[in-house]
């Protein structure tokens, strides 16, 4: 509760729109149960949205390939993205 209060009160320091923005995020004039429920839902949904966007990004990258601004021949000594980089990224190496 107090963490949400402190962080959202920081928004009120923004000139001109700060207090309006803080009240819009609170959904009223103070942090209450509805605000905390919205924050919880946001924190629950956000990782799924980020994961979905990362998957879409990888699919587009796989379809079109990466950009080649340097003009160097891109076909020299390549290894396939999957499984090598997939495993590397999954393990955080």
What report would you give on this structure?
By secondary structure, the chain is mostly helical. It has a domain at 1-64. Helix content is 67%, strand content 0%. The protein has 4 helices and no strands.
Give the helix/strand layout:
Elements: H1 2-11, H2 18-26, H3 33-64, H4 81-91
Helix pairs in contact: 1-2
User: Whole-number average pLDDT?
Assistant: 84
Low-confidence stretches: none
How many β strands by DSSP? 0
Backbone structural class: mainly alpha
The SSE string, one letter per element, is HHHH
Number of helix segments? 4
- Biggest β-sheet description: none
* Rg calc: 22 Å
The fraction of residues assigned to DSSP E strands is: under 5%
What general outline do the C-alpha atoms trace?
elongated
How would you concisely characterize the structure shown here?
This protein is mainly alpha-helical. It has a domain at 1-64. The protein is built from four helices and no strands.
Give me some keywords for this one.
single chain; 93 residues; mainly alpha; 4 helices; 67% helix
